[in-house]
Amino acid sequence: MSLNSLIAVSLAYVALLFVVAFAAERAAARGQLRVLRSPLVYTLSLSIYCTAWTFYGAVGSAARSGLEFITIYLGPTLVFVGWWWLLRKIVRVGKSQRVTSIADLISARYGKSNGLAVLVTVLAVVGTTPYISLQLQSVTLSFTVFADGANRDAEAIGLYVAVGLALFTIIFGTRSLDANERHDGIVSAIAVEAVVKLAALLAVGGFVVWGVASGPQDILERVAASPMADWTSSSGRWVGLTMLSAAAIICLPRMFQVMVVEASDERHLAIASWAFPLYLLGMSIFVVPIAVVGLEILPEGSNPDLFVLTIPLALGEDTLAMLAFLGGFSSATSMVIVASVALATMLSNHIVMPLWLATKAEGATVSGDVRYVVLVARRASIAAVLGMGYIYYRLNGGNEALASIGLIAFAGLAQVLPALLGGLFWRGATRIGAAAGISIGFAIWGYTMLLPVFQGTLLPVALFAEGPFEIAWLRPEGLFGINETDPLLSTLILSIGANTIAFCALSLLSFPTPLERWQGAQFINVFDRSTAPRGWKGGTAGAEELLIMAQRILGTEQAQSLFQTEASAQGKSGYLPDPTPDFIETLERELSGSVGTATSHAMVGQLTDGATVSVDDLLAVADEAAQIMEYSARLETQSEELTRTARKLREANTKLTELSIQKDAFLSQVSHELRTPMTSIRAFSEILMIDDLASEERQNYSGIIRDESQRLTRLLDDLLDLSVLENGQVVLNEATLSLHEVLERAVNASSSLTKGKLTIIRDPDREDVSLHTDADRLSQVFINLITNACKYCDAEAPELAIKVRRTKTRVTVDFIDNGGGIPARSRGVIFEKFARLTDHASAGSAGLGLAICREVMGRLGGNIDYLPGQKGAAFRVTLPRAQANAPSVAAQ
Amino acid sequence: MTKTVLLIEDEPNIIVAISFILQRAGWRVQTHSDGANAMEAVARERPDVIVLDVMLPGRSGFDILADIRAQDTEHDVPVLMLTAKGQTKDRARAEALGVTQFMTKPFANQAVLEAVEALVGQKA
């Protein structure tokens, strides 16, 4: 048979796989999922466990070491039959946490630690790369065997296969972004391949048993005659290898991919638990007959790893050989495809994406191009994984028995097992423990098992013969003087043992973070969470205890009315109700209104079932407590606001009360100031009615009436003026004018009063200041001050000095008389209304003058103050200067 | 014998008016316009009737009334209080202090005269 026709058949087969995968994707897109996501397809997809190593290597192993190969099938069988519940837990956890790979699972359990995910990813890549190269090697090897042993183009074939697989995986493995989504195309293709490889092995086996030999009886006799009958295996090795392959079925990234990530329904596991062992039985049943017949009919020195292929070829069964080739090809490709999808997911999620995000400027991360980046990262990762496999193959190809590299890979990935199982069942497992265990196991495995693989190619042989620095007990294959008769088993025990001890010890010594605790509880109690709706089965609780608790929470009245209502509903009016499940649930609902559902459930649980409170309950209680605290914090803020409002209201009320008192006092004073002149007016008008009054008296009394009337008018004018000023309704007639003019006006206006009584001293030169102000109002202030001096200055020769001073922004006008001044204790009140200080009411004013002056100056943007430290009474009027483009500053 | 009225008042025009009214009716009128040393005037003049203003410089009429009632117990001089404030609480306060009669400004001249004469008549 020519190589060309082999290549043609291979290409046709690959084309078929493409078609199957494409059709499956189309069907999935149309929603036709019944077959695609059936237990059968799920079980067949699990068959990627059987790689080319199993397909070819099992026969080789049987030919070399007897029945030892069975351990590889025994481990998974035991797990699927006996530890079915463990797988179900992993699947449930994986689905509920939406994990994308085994690295993701470990990371999720231990507080979503990316460091741990990176560690597991590196371990998986290091452990799986040789395995992928092994598959490439088996394909090229089978090609060369077909092509009459000529080793031509073997490397090229390996490259073509690697590239082809990369293409297939990229096309069907990264169509959708969601790593958690099922890859229906890939799963369907590997299901087809699973059928092909089983059929091929069964066909070759059948041919060997019934075609070459004459039936099972004959085979058994041949086995007895062959050297296989003499091979024995140590029971320790058997147990070790069985456990190793049992660990592998859980820990291998590709197995995790098909078993957990691609799982569409947890119930499929129930069928797979017997169907998959059956498949393994089919894969293994003819291994011994093929090995025996191969050893018998093929020439000495033939590679037993290729008996499946070489027996039909040697006997001229080209079609069967072709089928066998396709079976091996299927085994290799299906493993490579799924493994690279799994590894690519880990690489892109845990290494490439974090790095990419870290290099991006912070903030701009969640943009639209992230989706594109994820896709590119995953595709590049697939290419990288296959590229590494190919490079490894080029470096190491062909120097190792297939089986040994498979076991080494198993042992490497089994290092994840302690952290995985511990995480699923042990609350105390911590991230530090897991990281330490995996690191130590990884290191020992890498040193003692992986390094020797490179013996003679990358590393000098001397290193392995004499140890590094010629220290014998550091030799990779004899570390610490371990048993050299079975290095695999002893290094396996050493690495897993050290791993487990480190994991447990550091978990006990370290303290889990809250997130780890939470995730741990999620993992360990995954079934409690998703099953068992809460409900009370019925009670041992005394109604009295429930009532006491309810009273404490709801208050006596409400609790008793609740119990009475229930009692009468039960027909037991006047007694305590029976704690029926219904009533307990009602009670729990009532209580939850006060303390929250979780707390209420925990409390009622304590009384009814005597149930201990679980971590979940406590977490839920903590959640509620946090909510309640938040709520109470809100209430606190509200109450603070209320307190503030109340204080403001109190202040406003105090102010109003003060204003009311002021108003009363003001009215009382106004009344007094009005009644006093009116009293005079009335009294003298009555006196004027007397007939026998001297005309001099009459004139005198009439003058009093006139003066008092003027006083009344002035008072009313002042009151109205003050009211207008205080309400801010005053209209200012502002103009730019000279201070001198205003003073002149004021002095002239008051001259009738001051004439002969008061000497006014001025300095006209200094008065030449330009002002922008209301001349009438300003002169009103000046007149007031001049007349005050006139009225109250008690000097013998009263004098009033008017001094003008200016600064850049203001002008001050001081009015200083030579009298006794105002006593210090009274200076605080002189600007208040009705603040008349003199002992004589004769001043003829009501004491509103200075109050008016203060209001006016406020409106003009200046002020008026008493000026202490002068000999007599002194007032200072301050005004803003005109240039300071100061219009009226209408502020108080 | 001529009866003496002590007028304690600070408004000059009102002093003139009341003095005119009472003197015309034959009373001897002494005036005092400062609250601070009003008690000296009371002791000096030993009046038959006191006409007392409330709003006085130095000391209020209420304080002076209280002093009169406290010191001059045997005479029990009648006091006519005249106030321009005229609020009910002032009247109550004056009565509590032992005022004999209370009138608000402005007043009818005849009413003041009658009140003063009635007070003396009461005492006699």
Automatic annotation (TrEMBL), chain A:
Protein's membrane topology: Multi-pass membrane protein
GO molecular-function term, one example from the UniProt record: phosphorelay sensor kinase activity
Originating species: Thalassobacter stenotrophicus
Organism placement in taxonomy: Bacteria, Pseudomonadati, Pseudomonadota, Alphaproteobacteria, Rhodobacterales
InterPro entries in alphabetical order: HATPase_C_sf, HATPase_dom, His_kinase_dom, HisK_dim/P_dom, HisK_dim/P_sf, Na/Glc_symporter_sf, Na/solute_symporter, Sensor_HK_Regulatory
PANTHER family (alphabetical): SENSOR HISTIDINE KINASE RCSC, TWO-COMPONENT HISTIDINE KINASE
Main location: membrane
Name by which UniProt lists this protein: histidine kinase
Subcellular location: Membrane
UniProtKB/TrEMBL annotation, chain B:
One GO BP: phosphorelay signal transduction system
Cross-referenced PROSITE patterns: RESPONSE_REGULATORY
Single GO MF descriptor: DNA binding
Pfam family, one: Response_reg
InterPro entries: Bact_response_regulator (IPR050595), CheY-like_superfamily (IPR011006), Sig_transdc_resp-reg_receiver (IPR001789)
Top-rank taxon, per record: Bacteria
Keywords (A to Z) from UniProt: DNA-binding, Phosphoprotein, Transcription, Transcription regulation, Two-component regulatory system
UniProt modified residues of type 4-aspartylphosphate: 53
Ranges where the Response regulatory domain occurs: 4-120
Protein name: Putative transcriptional regulatory protein TcrX
Source organism phylogeny: Bacteria, Pseudomonadati, Pseudomonadota, Alphaproteobacteria, Rhodobacterales
Encoding gene per record: tcrX
